[in-house]
Design a protein that fits this description.
This protein is α/β, with parallel strands linked by helices and about 140 residues long. It contains 5 helices and 4 strands; from the N terminus they run βαβαββααα.
């Protein structure tokens, strides 16, 4: 009997996500490279309204976003976490920046993973570093 992969995808809104098994393995390799112990990661694909309600409820933010990341485990414990991704926002952002939905979806997934590996994106310097790491893992994945 094979052990369940700690990375699981859940679709509240359908979206095209090819090679799911390969993507799960790649996400695990990112955690390993970044020296972060992962116990469980649920990635939930939803729509704008669902993510907006979470943004209001948990962060008191009244605006649309493409991703919310929630660590559920304590500090210095193996990571248990959830990432919520708005498929609507990803589609809109891809159109706005002239990217493909596929690439933007993977960028957002890697962005959430990198947050759990300690990368930040509030300051200009942090944003630049985060985007560089997203690009690195996108290039490595594709």
């Amino acid at each position: 009997m094979s052990k369940k992969n700690p990375v699981q995808f859940h679709f509240l809104k359908p979206c095209t996500l090819p090679n799911r098994r390969g993507l799960k393995k790649f996400i695990l390799s990112v955690f390993k490279k970044e020296k972060k112990v992962l116990e469980e990661l649920n990635i939930i694909f939803c729509d704008d309204d669902y993510l907006l309600s979470l943004n209001r409820q948990f962060l008191n933010h009244d605006f649309y976003t493409d991703i919310l990341s929630f660590p559920l485990s304590g500090v210095n414990q193996p990571l248990i976490a959830e990432i919520y991704i708005s498929v609507d926002r990803v589609r809109e952002n891809a159109r706005a920046i002239g990217s493909t939905i596929r690439e933007e979806l993977h960028r957002v997934i890697f962005h959430g993973v990198l947050h759990f590996c300690g990368y930040k994106d509030k300051s200009g310097t942090d944003k630049t570093k985060m985007m560089g790491m997203e690009d690195k893992y996108l290039k490595s994945y594709f």
